[in-house]
Amino acid sequence: MADFGGSILKVAFLTLGCKVNFYETEKMKMQFEEAGHTIVSFEEEADAYVINTCTVTNIADRKSRKMLHRARRKNPDAIIAAVGCYVDSVRKKGGMEEESVDLFLSNTEKAQLVEKIAAFEAAKRKQAEHAYSGEKKEAGCQGSMSRKAMEQRHTRAFLKVQDGCNQYCTYCIIPYVRGPLTSKKEEDVIKEAEELAKQGIQEIVITGIHLSSYGVDFTEQKTFLELGGEPLLSLLRKLSAKKGIRRIRLGSLEPRIMTETFVSSLAKIPNICPHFHLSLQSGCDDTLRRMNRRYRTREYLDCLKLLRKYFVHPAITTDIIVGFPQETEAEFAATCAFAEKAHFAQLHVFKYSRRQGTFADTMEGQVSEQTKADRSERLIAIGKKMQMEYQSLFEGQIEEVLFEEIISINHKEYLIGYNERYIRFGIDTAGIPEPEKCCNTIHPVRVLGHLTDEILLGEYS
Predict the structure, then answer these.
(1) Cα-based distances in Å from 93 to 55, 88, 238, 309
(2) Parallel, antiparallel, or unpaired for β 442-450 and 455-460?
(3) Number of other residues whose CB lies within 10 A of the CB of residue 49
(4) What string of pLDDT tens digits covers the 461 residues of the chain?
(5) I want to staple 444 with a disulfide (CB 3.0 to 4.6 A). Which of 61, 227, 324, 461 is the partner?
């Protein structure tokens, strides 16, 4: 995770130009969200503004500059980052001066955005600490803020091992903009993981556009199903054998990879977190067909049974799209019923968004925005109920928690971290000497109950 001194930042994005830029913006947003930060509208006051620029015409250049200046006016103290084609273009011309801009990142540097902003924020914080080091800090709220501002070590890092997708779901633009499947060589992944371990990273998250297809391009076989996930398993075994990385967490996996052979092999690999994200998208078979998803609900349930056979209370999370073209109320009801039957640990609900260039964009029977919003609210409520029920399974248990930050909740400070199942925990800092030193350490925690709807309350065991 990027180091923001324990602060939750509000980050706003603005995208100019082509479909690739829009895709890359979503990827960058995801990285910030996974790091625990909040994405807000560009119209809101934010702590950081990211403008994904375009340079296809002179007008595009002018608009890029205009939006950068506009962001600075919104919040003079914010971090302003220009990323993308305009940056590449200006760099080639030998210039890169903009008073309104703090950071310039080319297309190839977009993946480093979270870290770049973290470094800039850390420098700002250090400067501020020097400026106010002689002042006496007030008690109460200001004392809490000073504790939050203390430097937090990195704890989690994302390690991308694969790019591209050839599944061609009807709602998705990714296969058209990311190109063919490509995998990072094992030795390169391991080298990167070793570097992360040297930096003190306790947990790595293995990610990819279609992670289940890792290694397909290394063989003459054409599908990940033919390979049975063996290239990914091989990589995970080698990563697990390396010193320093305490946890290995997997990004989103294709449900069809969850065969008995794959799941049983996965369960034998040390350090694998029992947390699995299997995108469902719909709990109705007719909707799945229109989406060109290549499994059906019965197959999906079989995957869940296998995971629960080989792992104790695995955290199974998923994505569901509501309001897909032609989705009827009966189809939506089937999705709700299926979600409750599957009993997910966490549910991510998305309203269907038309993407020009996809087959779904041309389909008849587009669902109204009001209907999408209504269905989204109803499914989110089901998801929250399931999440509370899942978390309650751990009350009274001892869990290993990797602490990451200190935050204030109801005027009290808590050490915040995650267990292997990605459940969030809070420990009251009262009585803990120098609690900031607990960040980036793993401690056994007894679960007492709920601190908030999203966070369990614990105590040192």
Answers:
(1) 13, 9, 44, 59
(2) antiparallel
(3) 28
(4) 444 444 678 999 999 876 557 758 878 988 888 888 889 999 989 999 999 988 755 567 788 889 999 999 989 889 999 998 788 767 765 555 666 788 988 877 888 899 888 878 877 666 554 544 444 333 333 323 223 333 344 678 778 888 888 888 998 876 765 667 889 999 999 998 998 899 888 999 898 878 999 999 998 777 888 888 999 999 999 999 988 889 999 988 999 999 999 999 999 999 999 999 999 999 999 999 999 999 999 999 999 999 999 999 999 999 999 999 999 999 999 999 999 999 999 999 988 888 767 899 899 999 999 999 999 999 999 999 999 999 999 999 999 999 998 999 988 999 999 999 999 999 999 978 888 889 999 999 999 999 998 899 999 88
(5) 461
Q: How many CB atoms lie within 10 A of CB 59?
A: 9
Neighbours of 244 (CB within 10 A): 14
Instruction: Give the amino acid at 90.
Output: V
| Encoded amino acid at 281, one letter | Q
**What CATH homologous superfamily does 10-132 map to?**
Methylthiotransferase, N-terminal domain (3.40.50.12160)
Which residue type, as a one-letter code, is found at position 399? E
Max distance between CA atoms of the chain, in angstroms, equals 67
Query: Would you tell me which CATH number, out of the four given (3.90.1150.30, 3.30.70.330, 3.40.640.10, 3.80.30.20), belongs to the domain 156-392?
Result: 3.80.30.20
Instruction: Please say whether the beta carbons of 11 and 31 come within 8 A.
Output: no
Domain ranges of the chain: 10-132, 156-392, 398-460
Burial 208-239 (b: 16+ CB within 10 A, else e): bbbbbbbbbeeeeeeebbebebbbbbebbeeb
Name the E strands within 209-338: 247-250, 275-277, 315-322
Spatial neighbors of 435 by CB under 8 A, at least 6 apart, are 147, 406, 413, 415, 429
3-state secondary structure (DSSP) of residue 404: strand
Report which of 341, 292, 298, 296 is spatially closest to residue 316, judged by C-alpha positions. Answer: 341
Enter the pTM of the model: 0.71
